[in-house]
């Protein structure tokens, strides 16, 4: 597989260029839907773009221990990066983290610490551990180097597409991918391309921010899309929106997100998590015509039994062959 454009030739690149495929199932007479398959990254999600870049540059600067706070895609990316770079990694995860994800992190050589009921509590503990041990705390989404790394996704699209798309659809949790997409669009002259932000109801802190004009913290995460489970987005997201960055916020139900996961599993033979399904489900509310790129952000937090559990839990209609 071809390597993508590097953020810095002096750093070790840990991500790969991912496939961009046409989805006949999702396309309509007025919309050509393309899927950017970030679920095929070595760590299982887009996160390795930004976290790989941050970790590689940190090692160049002498860092020998990473502490992060995600039992999901970000944790998997940091654990993978640490193993590739020969650096010790500690991942602090909330109690809600599935056992199979804890096991996967340990298989990558990471030390796993369970702390708190929600991610925000786990992250505060991770910050304290890093401070006490003189290590580098790595946020799942809130660091400029993460955004610079994630921006390589747009660098690839700019080469792969003959023309600008009508829109790019991305799932939003804490906002790291959104910020990377926005940065990538700016450096490729795509500032006029709308970013459709997809969230599930109960994990919709970005939509709340757009509505209020400032960062708003949710009281809790009630959605099953745990990978979107940041109570508040990065302040930098609000700055981009205030500057006039064109965004179209879409909030879908858990049921819609799960039905999209089922559709991808049956029609495209790909298992993804509800956080990713939200971006597919968000297509239903987009009236724009032309090429729509949907970022298939990841598939770490899922398995066949979990998908069946979500279908039963939400009353979702299972896709058929």
TrEMBL record:
Residues 13-298 form the Tryptophan synthase beta chain-like PALP domain. It is found in: Cytoplasm. One of its GO terms (molecular function) is threonine deaminase activity. Pathway: Carbohydrate biosynthesis; gluconeogenesis. It is an enzyme of class 4 (lyase). GO terms for cellular component: cytoplasm. Its EC number is 4.3.1.17. PANTHER family: CATABOLIC L-SERINE_THREONINE DEHYDRATASE, THREONINE DEHYDRATASE, MITOCHONDRIAL-RELATED. Belongs to the serine/threonine dehydratase family. This is L-serine ammonia-lyase.
